[in-house]
Design a protein that fits this description.
This protein has 391 residues and is α+β, with helices and mostly antiparallel strands. It has helices spanning 3-6, 22-33, 64-72, 86-93, 102-108, 111-120, 134-144, 171-177, 233-249, 284-287, 292-300, 331-335, 366-382, and strands at 14-18, 37-42, 55-58, 76-79, 97-98, 128-131, 148-152, 162-165, 183-187, 191-201, 207-209, 213-218, 221-227, 254-263, 268-274, 314-320, 340-344, 355-362. Strands 10, 11, 12, 13, 14, 15, 16, 17 and 18 form a 9-stranded antiparallel beta sheet that branches. Strands 3-2-1-4-5 form a 5-stranded parallel beta sheet, with helices on both faces. Residues 259, 272 line the site of magnesium ion.
Length: 391
């Protein structure tokens, strides 16, 4: 580590965020609260991050001159979106610190590289095969058995670019679904539940983690997270230890989330990594002394990490664009539940499946928190009379 790397980036400095979605927005809120300035770069305009940042730069990620210019104006570049080209991180690194490093990004933005790294490092993962042609898909499926899940190697999120193969008659549709491009075939995991752990690692290698969250998905998109996860302590402890090892092995400076499958026998398998704050860690914004976003800020600035104590059991429910189908949701109705907090991301167009915001409930138990957040979310549409055809 050079002496420059070890000098903390102090309040008043400017942080650069690549990407401009809700993760960057919540990061920017945390950063501004601590007196930092925030610049964001992405191809979009009037973005969730840009609305909160001091400066929003509108350029494609492969416009390396724009990226270099952006990097020159900030003390450190971090990410809220990991699917930026390796060349983008490298161009930024010519002029400023990049945390986590381009190497972490390179590994985690590509499912095949990520799973290969994990399995070679001895982490438990479901059996998988590389698939780069239809014939390879057939032989991989024969080797792994069915059911199996075919996932595009890159640019997948929220269940996009994935196809569950139940029988041989699905092969063609699966190969089409991943765009007939490099993909990974994974043996299907018949799990009891899914959990995730957000960990943070500082410049000095200190590690802290949040309690494991229990995650429910709907249509491949995270729907509800409950924290702490309702799993045995031994499972939660092992998940935290595995998360620590992943951050160490990748030498992450920043925040990284590990998604796990918990098998019915309690055994953990790592599903995937996200080298940034994660949707399943949104509860920390309201429920923890230091949120995952402030922790990312502290880590990338070379500051000490903040305490991760959780103040109360929590549950988070995502608000997707589908909720807007019949008009603006009934916000006051949800806010009548006094232990529920509303977060909206400032997105202009509520498309189906698009993450527009979330609700977090804090309560005396996770079951009560879950009940409150589900009730609040259902209240958003409760008053609506179903639209009747008038003719
Ligand atoms: N091998 C698998 N076995 C069973 N379910 C899976 C498997 N892979 C993915 N899933 C399901 O699909 C969801 C999304 O897959 P994931 O790989 O996490 O992609 P994304 O990047 O879209 O989050 C997972 O959270 C899980 O519910
Ligand atoms: Mg996932």
């Amino acid at each position: 580590m050079s002496p420059i790397d070890s000098k903390p980036i102090l309040p008043g400095s400017t942080i650069g965020v690549l990407g401009s979605g809700q993760l960057g927005r919540m990061f920017a809120i945390a950063a501004r609260r601590m007196g930092y300035r925030v610049h964001t770069l992405s191809p979009d305009e009037d973005t969730p991050t840009g609305q909160v940042a001091d400066v929003e730069i509108n350029a494609p990620y492969d416009d390396l001159d724009a990226v270099r210019q952006f990097a020159k104006t900030v003390s450190v570049v971090t990410f809220e979106f990991e699917n930026v080209p390796a060349a983008t991180a490298a161009a930024a690194a010519e002029h400023t610190l990049v945390r986590p490093s381009g190497r972490v990004l390179h590994t985690t933005q590509h499912r095949l590289r990520e799973k290969t790294f994990l399995s070679q490092a001895g982490f438990p993962v479901t059996p998988f095969r590389r698939v780069s042609s239809f014939d390879e898909l057939v032989s991989a499926a024969t080797a792994l058995g069915l059911p199996a899940i075919l996932k595009s190697a890159d640019f997948g999120y929220d269940g996009k670019g994935q196809y569950r193969i139940r029988s041989e008659s699905d092969f063609q549709a699966a190969w089409q679904a991943v765009g007939q491009r490099e993909a990974i075939l994974e043996a299907f995991v018949d799990y009891a539940c899914e959990i995730s752990v957000v960990g943070a690692r500082s410049v000095r290698g200190e590690f802290l983690h949040y309690s494991a969250a229990e995650n429910r998905h709907a249509n491949g998109i995270l729907d509800i997270s409950i924290a702490p996860a309702r799993v045995p302590d031994s499972v939660a402890r092992e998940a935290a230890e595995l998360t620590h090892s992943v951050l160490e092995k990748l030498e992450v400076v920043g925040v990284l989330c590990v998604e796990f499958f918990v098998r019915k026998d309690g055994q953990l398998l790592i599903n995937e990594l996200a080298p940034r704050p994660h949707n399943s860690g949104h509860f920390t914004f309201d429920a923890n002394l230091t949120s995952q976003f402030e922790q990312q800020l502290r880590a990338v600035c070379g500051l000490p990490l903040g305490a991760v104590d959780q103040l109360a059991p929590a549950a988070m429910a995502n608000l997707l664009g589908d909720l807007w189908r019949d008009g603006e949701p009934d916000w006051p109705a949800a806010l009548q539940v006094p232990n529920v907090k509303l977060h909206l991301y400032g997105k202009l167009e509520p498309r189906p499946g698009r993450k527009m915001g979330h609700l977090t409930a804090l309560a005396h138990s996770t079951d009560q928190a879950l009940e409150a957040v589900e009730f609040a979310r259902s209240s958003l549409q409760a008053k609506r009379v179903p639209q009747m055809a008038t003719q």
